[in-house]
Amino acid sequence: MTPNLTAFTGVDSQNLPDVMVSVQFILAIGVLFSIWALCQILLMLVKKSYICLMKALNRTRLFSAFFEANDVLL
User: Fold this and answer.
1) Percent helix, strand and coil across the chain, each to the nearest 5
2) What is the pTM of this model?
3) CA 15 to CA 1: how far, in whole Å?
4) What CA–CA distances, in Å, run from 9 to 12, 24, 72?
5) What is the pLDDT of residue 58?
6) Which of 5, 36, 43, 54 has the greatest number of C-beta atoms within 10 Å?
């Protein structure tokens, strides 16, 4: 027999399983939203890292091209 939880939850014991399923569904939506938000943050960080890497590679190419063009020995 299901204990009477009406005093604590405000929900009749007969409707408690339905309410529990609803709460689990709401929590699952929250978890999915959190995972989506985390993926968006990680994607932003990857894009920024990629842009910084490309800029650094471009500078390196320009730097080495400058010395090759001027025949400077290091």
Assistant:
1) 80, 0, 20
2) 0.54
3) 14
4) 8, 15, 80
5) 80
6) 5
